[in-house]
């Protein structure tokens, strides 16, 4: 059985609130300055000129004449309506409605979508765990239309569980034929009900050999401006996950995998309840773990927070195995061939990844193969 986890950072379209902001601190300063000037009752000529400059820098003077769009979800293609404005303002026959929606998402570069498929096809797992996908409809388009382009058969089953944050960062799973999903359970790992965080998703799966495994799909709190609060939130989530793991062990369930996006490196204290206080084993520590190492001097370098020597990307994605499954590990690895190196070409990437926006994701795909 080969299992993989992959944070795709969406398949076809991504919420614009998640995109990297241009100019970073400068943009924030410009917005604050503009807000201050606009609140003044009277403005001098120089202040008026400055408002014009700031409007240009922020982008207010570059509005689209077509601020609304019709978004056809099929394979994520985006079709803009023409300049002849529609008078339809509500859905009559919803099946044929051609109305207006405000564009909250931006389309992902088609090459990026292709590279997501290529990474998955190269590993070709039997069970595929996904984080940050739009919805099941988008995944099925990806599954049926994009994966076959790389000689990868579509998965026969797929499930997507929606989170609470309403920005299309859902969690999903897909199976090859012969694997049966017997149960899905969600565990609240957030301090308050209806928190913006993700629930822990537990899958109970029967393999073709009639064995059972319990797979926990994880997406932890990202580090935000308030680092201390982010740390506390993440540590609370990790403690709850550790409790679920210990409960499964107490019930005699030994074939357990915890995988997904933890959003912080392994030395972070917030991960201690799982990485230090349980017997779970990190797949990257297995002798079979293989990955194309960095090139040049970085090949012998071990970055703090990196996966291992010569794999110096900061670890945010994990696959943890219970000891009985870890002993059955036959092969494992990490595919980062569609990741864009931030500073220089530190590792081997696909020739077709020629620009940053063509990269599959900022996350690698991690996989393991066990005999079960």
Q: Can you tag this structure with a few keywords?
A:
seven-stranded mixed beta sheet; 26% strand; six-stranded mixed beta sheet; 2 domains; 372 residues; Deoxyribonuclease I, Chain A; alpha+beta
Written account of the structure:
By secondary structure, this protein is an alpha+beta fold. The chain folds into two domains: 2-16 and 108-370, Deoxyribonuclease I, Chain A (4-Layer Sandwich); 70-102, no CATH class. It contains seven helices and 20 strands. The longest helix has 24 residues, at 227-250. The termini are close together.
What's the structural blueprint in terms of helices and strands?
Elements: E1 2-7, E2 13-15, H1 25-39, H2 45-58, E3 68-71, E4 78-79, E5 101-102, E6 105-107, H3 110-123, E7 127-133, H4 136-146, E8 157-161, E9 170-175, E10 180-187, E11 200-206, E12 212-219, H5 227-250, E13 256-261, H6 272-275, E14 281-282, E15 289-290, E16 306-308, E17 311-314, E18 317-321, H7 323-327, E19 329-335, E20 365-370
Parallel strand pairs: 1-7, 12-13, 15-19
Antiparallel strand pairs: 1-20, 2-6, 3-4, 3-5, 7-9, 8-9, 10-11, 11-12, 13-18, 14-18, 16-17, 19-20
